[in-house]
Amino acid sequence: MKERWQQLALREKQLLVIMSVVVLITLFYFALWKPLKTGIEKGQLRLKAQTHALMKIRQQAAEVRQLRNTGAGKQTLIEDSSSLLGLIERSAKQKNINGNLQKVQPEGQREVRVWMENVPFDQLISWLDLLSNRYALEISEISLERGNTPGIVNGRILLQAP
């Protein structure tokens, strides 16, 4: 190869050097520079989109916190334990589990302990969701045991009004 190089005329050598430089520059551009630049641009677009999504999530989280603090959408008209007992009975009827309530006992002005047997788990969860989301009752204590049939539970729940 060295012999071939030495046999070339000066003009041919210059042309080969220039072409080699052009090929190296082109190779550098298409193999390294362009993919890096494209990757950076895509990364910047992704970052911008994720930043926008994060801002929306933070805004929605602030709205949720504000709604939770104000109790918006929740009826909190429980004045004493007797109205709390009535609420428990009415809501249990609404969710068709009133026959499963064995005992409902007030514990102070704002707490009620509920004993239940053979209640379908899904209906129990639906009832607790109703009490929590619509009436702002909190579950202070809960103890559930499996019943003899799959999907059936027995348990004790202590509910607390705000």
Automatic annotation (TrEMBL):
One of its GO terms (cellular component) is type II protein secretion system complex. It holds the Pfam family T2SSM. GO terms for biological process: protein secretion by the type II secretion system. The chain crosses the membrane at residues 15-33. Its main location: membrane. It is a single-pass membrane protein. Keywords: Cell inner membrane, Cell membrane, Membrane, Protein transport, Transmembrane, Transmembrane helix, Transport. InterPro entries: T2SS_GspM, T2SS_M_periplasmic_sf. It is found in: Cell inner membrane. This is General secretion pathway protein M.
